[in-house]
């Protein structure tokens, strides 16, 4: 359970970017989280309500864009979403794969009131 | 007025930055540092005990231990000959760069050659929190099953070295080595791997040789 540390990081980044804009309030945060990143939306939301209290981000809405994992087989070219019990290419069983999506873990943008 | 501000920043960027500072400190002291990660029971502490016992006469070994509530593991390492610092993480599921920094403050880095960090027993998230060691070592073990790379991809993605422990149990446990290896190859092609048993000592020499090749002479 590390969502508290993650949520504190999100708040720190948002406040740091809002400050030079002279924001009065941060109203929305847009987060992009890949399936292979271990974070639980509900827990982040839970901590958010507590730690954002007393800051200009109080009451801001967290928007989670979850990105499903997507792999490409480097042998047959198939692009697919892997099964959690077997990563290999479902068509040719190759292990030569490229991770296209699923490892995102970033704050893309914030909406502020000035 | 409402406006959208582009941010595009990794959520763990503050941790990553601190990890770089930790690495700079470790490098400045001429120490080689590894971060050992695994599920509970895979054999992290046994591997560290064997490693310290084999190398403590040749090198000055320091150890940072992230056990949740006790100092048992640090005691075992200290008994084997390492300067040990215990971090009680109060139920956290991983070590982070802040915790390693405070551990570095408690160690006499200038008088160490090798620093071993034992992360918390967990296959979910430790690899996502960079500490500032040179190499991330993941310890897998035969009894935990051959599907672990497939189920915990981010841990295997974040590893630089794989130790497959408890190979003495292969005759007794169903473990498809090819399925395990396929998962590893898919996630982390060319990953350096050592198959060994901390109980029988089989395979330990290759691991120790790899480590010695990286420690300052």
How would you sum up this structure, described in words?
The complex is a heterodimer of chains A (114) and B (217). By secondary structure, chain A is an alpha+beta fold. Chain A has helices at 3-18, 41-51, and strands at residues 25-34, 61-67, 70-73, 79-80, 97-101, 105-113. Chain A is built from two helices and six strands, in the order H-E-H-E-E-E-E-E. Chain A starts with a helix and ends with a strand. With 217 residues, chain B is an alpha/beta fold. Chain B has one domain (33-212): Rossmann fold. Chain B has helices at residues 13-28, 44-55, 72-79, 97-106, 148-151, 153-157, 177-187, 204-212; strands at residues 2-10, 32-38, 61-65, 83-86, 114-118, 135-141, 161-165, 192-195. In chain B, strands 4-3-5-2-6-7-8 form a seven-stranded parallel sheet, with helices on both faces. The radius of gyration of chain B is 18 Å and the shape is globular. The chains are: A alpha+beta (114), B alpha/beta (217). The interface between A and B is large, with 39 and 37 residues.
- What is the distance, rounded to the nearest whole angstrom, between the alpha carbons of the first and last residues of chain A? 35 Å
Secondary-structure element series of chain B: EHEHEHEHEEHHEHEH
Identify the CATH class of one domain in chain A: Alpha Beta
Oligomer: heterodimer
- Total domain modules of chain B: 1
Global mean pLDDT of chain A = 94
Q: Assign a percent range to the helix content of chain A.
A: 10-25%
Straight-line distance between termini of chain B = 63 Å
Given the structure, what is the number of helices of chain B?
A: 8
Structural class of chain B: alpha/beta
Quickly name the level 1 CATH class of chain B: Alpha Beta
Q: Give the radius of gyration of chain A.
A: 18 Å
What is the H-and-E element order of chain A?
Answer: HEHEEEEE
Q: Structural class, from secondary structure content of chain A?
A: alpha+beta
CATH architecture of chain B: 3-Layer(aba) Sandwich
Morphology of chain B = globular
Strand content of chain B: 15-25%
Task: Determine the mean pLDDT of chain B.
Answer: 92
Helicity of chain B, as a percent range: 25-40%
């Amino acid at each position: 359970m590390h969502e508290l540390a993650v949520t504190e990081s999100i708040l720190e980044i948002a406040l740091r970017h809002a400050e030079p804009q002279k924001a009065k309030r941060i109203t929305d945060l847009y987060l992009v989280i890949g399936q292979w990143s271990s974070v639980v939306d509900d827990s982040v939301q839970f901590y958010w309500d507590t730690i954002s209290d007393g800051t200009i981000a109080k009451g801001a809405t967290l928007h989670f864009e979850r990105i499903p994992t997507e792999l490409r087989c480097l042998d047959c070219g198939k692009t697919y979403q892997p099964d959690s019990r077997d990563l290999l290419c479902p068509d040719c069983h190759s292990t030569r794969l490229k991770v296209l999506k699923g490892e995102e873990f970033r704050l893309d943008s914030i909406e502020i009131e000035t | 007025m409402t406006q959208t501000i582009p941010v595009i920043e990794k959520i763990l960027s503050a941790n990553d930055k601190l990890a770089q500072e930790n690495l700079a400190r470790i490098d400045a002291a001429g120490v080689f540092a590894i971060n050992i990660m695994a599920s509970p029971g895979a054999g992290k502490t046994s591997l560290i005990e064997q490693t310290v016992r084999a190398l403590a006469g040749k090198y000055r070994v320091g150890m940072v231990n992230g056990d949740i509530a006790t100092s048992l593991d640090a005691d075992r390492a200290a008994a084997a000959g390492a300067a040990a610092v215990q971090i009680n993480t109060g139920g956290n599921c991983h070590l982070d760069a802040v915790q390693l920094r405070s551990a570095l403050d408690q160690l006499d880095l200038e008088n160490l050659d090798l620093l071993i960090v034992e992360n918390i027993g967990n296959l979910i998230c430790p690899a996502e929190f960079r500490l500032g060691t040179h190499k991330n070592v993941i310890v897998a073990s035969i009894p935990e099953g051959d599907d672990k790379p497939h189920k915990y991809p981010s841990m295997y993605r974040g590893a630089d070295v794989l130790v497959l422990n408890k190979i003495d149990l292969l005759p007794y446990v169903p473990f498809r080595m090819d399925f395990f290896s396929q998962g590893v190859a898919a996630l982390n092609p060319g990953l350096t791997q050592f198959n060994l048993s901390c109980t029988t000592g089989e395979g330990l020499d290759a691991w120790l040789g790899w480590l010695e090749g990286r420690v300052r002479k």
